[in-house]
Specification:
By secondary structure, the chain is mainly alpha-helical. 74% of the residues lie in helices and 1% in strands.
Length: 702
């Protein structure tokens, strides 16, 4: 047909043209290139699973760091286990191999289905059926490609889930690892604690062994010490027994000598009685009684081998009574002989006078008093102040104390550091030994005495680890004497007031120092009179313009501002100082010179007692001071003055006690009752007991 011929010609022309020579490919060249590129593509995970995996690793690392940071262990980034990593790699390789095989099969299928570009086929056009088939093929390929993409996405999701599961497993494994590590740390810590506890137990065991060893050594030393002490005690007892035997023999010799003297005195009574007749028969009776008493004492002591000190004391009292009786008898005999002689002379003179009167009858003048006789005017009534001589002595001592204080004014007020240091060392050297005085042993007391004596003599003494001497300053001796006397009185004010027995060791050292250095004794009395005017005795009057506080200071009260110490405290201090004074006047240092003068003596005690009884009593003060003085010094005074002292005791009991009672109020009766009971006991026993704390001869051998 002409139409068909023209169409074929047109198609041939188009096929032979440059555009008609182009090869038709339904997929297009880009699809072939895409297939070729995909044939070389290696299967791998998409970026989304990598991002999820990194995110999981990041969360796990942060949680791991937080956990290990709280536990104190160093942070370690989690790493997958080798087994899990190998499984993931195997799965990836299998997926890659399967995809490569599928891509190769698709390429081969496409090559087989692709028409050959020979000239015979290129010029032929596809029929509608071929076109439809080709379209179906393209549609199938598109569907197959979508399924492949869908499978790939499923595999990627599966891979992401696997990776998430692996991450969770790894996190759990890290938790288990951390728990295991913490367990091991706790076990190690417990092991260290066990080792430490075991070592401490071993140390305690060693310490216990050491303690046991020390206790054993201590027990051994204690046994040895007890053995030594027992030996020393045995030796001491043997020495005491020997001393008691020696003292007993000495007392026996003394008792025999007393008996011999009493018998000799008894022999003097008979001639006197024969001269004066029966007027002195009482002395003979009393002498026989004393001789019989001493004989009974000797017979009683022979049963106990040696006489007791009380036996000797009673015998000595009997001897004193015998001596006093002989003295009184001799005085009476002398008076009787003088009276007899005077009567004879008067009779002779009367006879001569009668004869002369008959001859001349002269007037005889009345006899005049002899020039040797003195009339003693006695003061009537009790006085309010001491005698002038006592007050003069009091003023002299106070002037001496003031002059001594002024003599070391430069040393006392110096601002130089070296001088101040020297002053403090001198004060310590003077005060510390006095504070160390005690009745522990005679050797200790003698050491204190020697130390004080060496200091006053100018020699070097050790004080506080330093050598000190009064010669290191021109005013050092006066300063030490003043401070030493002040310290002695202060000890009486404080130590003796609390412990009455302490008066005797302090007093005997003060007495011994006063024998060697009389200035110290005078300063002691001056300080004592200043703090306790009743030791003079002196009742200071209140001067015009003097305040109450100043007057109380003069009386001895402690006044701080406007506060005055209580009456009990005041009387306690006064009692301590009076006891110290009473002890000082009766004691002498046993190693001193008995002939050396001393600032003290029993005559001061007699004068003090006589003057205090001659003054008006003070409420509470007089009774307390009399009791303290008599309790400390009464035994020494009665041994010295015998009957004269008993007259004073009776005077106090019968007359002076009533005056004290008259001025004593109801609240102050305690001191008065103590004095009354003491006087009654002494008078009933005819003896004043030895004061407590008085050192015996054996004390100085300790």
């Amino acid at each position: 047909m002409p139409y068909d011929n023209r169409c074929m010609e047109t198609l041939d022309a188009l096929r032979n043209s440059s555009k008609g020579k182009l090869t038709y490919n339904p997929e297009g060249p880009w699809f072939i290139e895409d297939i070729q590129d995909n044939s070389d593509f290696i299967l791998g995970l998409s970026p989304q699973p990598d991002w999820v995996y990194e995110r999981l690793n990041h969360e796990k690392d942060s949680s791991f760091r937080v956990i290990h940071g709280l536990s104190g262990s160093p942070s370690v980034s989690p790493s997958p286990s080798p087994s899990s990593c190998q499984e993931v790699k195997k799965e990836e390789q299998q997926l890659e191999e399967e995809e490569e095989e599928e891509s190769k099969m698709e390429v081969q299928t496409a090559d087989e289905e692709k028409p050959q570009d020979d000239p015979s086929t290129q010029t032929a056009l596809l029929s509608p059926h071929d076109t439809q088939v080709q379209g179906c093929i393209c549609l199938f390929e598109e569907i197959h490609r979508g399924k492949a993409k869908e499978q790939l996405m499923q595999r990627q999701e599966t891979q992401a889930l696997v990776m998430e599961d692996i991450a969770n497993q790894e996190l759990e494994q890290m938790k288990r690892f951390d728990e295991l590590k913490a367990l091991k740390q706790r076990q190690e810590l417990q092991r260290l604690r066990d080792v430490e506890e075991q070592s401490s137990q071993e140390a305690l065991g060693r310490q216990e062994k050491i303690r046991e060893k020390m206790r054993e050594e201590y027990r051994t030393r204690a046994k040895m010490r007890e053995a030594r002490e027992a030996e020393v005690q045995r030796q001491r007892e043997a020495e005491l027994l020997r001393q008691r035997q020696m003292e007993g023999r000495e007392r026996l010799r003394r008792l025999n000598s007393i008996q011999e003297e009493v018998l000799q005195l008894q022999l003097l009574i008979d001639p006197a009685v024969s001269q004066t007749g029966s007027e002195l028969s009482e002395y003979r009776i009393r002498g026989n009684q004393l001789c019989g008493f001493i004989s009974e004492v000797i017979q009683a002591s022979s049963q106990t081998q040696f006489p007791t000190p009380e036996d000797v004391s009673n015998s000595e009292k009997a001897l004193q009574d015998m001596r006093g009786m002989i003295s009184s008898m001799q005085q009476e005999v002398t008076q009787a002989l003088q009276l007899k002689k005077r009567k004879e002379e008067e009779e002779l003179a009367r006879q001569q006078q009668t004869v002369q009167q008959k001859a001349n009858e002269p007037v005889q003048p009345s006899p005049a008093p002899s020039s040797g006789q003195k009339v003693k005017v006695k003061k009537e009534g009790l006085q309010t102040k001491a005698e002038p001589t006592t007050l003069e002595r009091y003023r002299q001592l106070q002037d001496l104390c003031s002059q001594c204080a002024q003599s070391f004014e430069d040393l006392n007020s110096s601002r130089d550091s070296q001088t101040k240091k020297l002053k403090m060392e001198l004060q310590k050297a003077a005060s510390i030994p006095v504070s160390q005085i005690s009745s522990i042993s005679g050797s200790k007391l003698r050491e204190v005495f020697d130390k004080i004596s060496m200091l006053l003599s100018g020699r070097l003494v050790q004080s506080g680890g330093k050598s000190i001497s009064v010669t290191q300053h021109p005013q050092g001796l006066d300063f030490v004497c003043f401070k030493l006397a002040e310290k002695f009185v202060k000890q009486g004010e404080e130590e003796v007031a609390s412990h009455h027995e302490a008066a005797f060791p302090i007093a005997i050292v003060a007495s011994g120092i006063s024998e060697l250095y009389p200035k110290v004794g005078d300063l002691i009395l001056a300080h004592l009179h200043k703090k306790c005017p009743y030791a003079v005795p002196f009742y200071p009057p209140m001067k015009d313009g003097m305040s109450v506080e100043d007057y109380q200071r003069v009386l001895g009260y402690r006044v701080e501002g406007s506060t005055v110490e209580s009456q009990d405290s005041f009387m306690k201090r006064m009692s301590g100082m009076i006891r110290l004074y009473a002890a000082m006047i009766q004691l002498r240092w046993p190693y001193g010179n008995k002939q050396a003068p001393c600032s003290f003596g029993l005559d001061l005690g007699w004068c003090w007692l006589a003057q205090i009884l001659d003054m008006e009593p003070l409420a509470d003060v007089t009774a307390t001071l009399l009791f303290d003085f008599l309790e400390v010094c009464g035994n020494a005074l009665v041994n010295q003055y015998q009957g004269q002292f008993w007259k004073l005791i009776l005077l106090i009991k019968e007359e002076y006690f009533k005056r004290i009672e008259a001025v004593t109020s109801t609240g102050q009766m305690g001191s008065l009752m103590r004095l009354k009971q003491f006087l009654e006991n002494c008078i009933s026993r005819r003896d004043i007991p030895v004061p407590k704390g008085l050192m015996s001869s054996s004390f100085w051998r300790s």
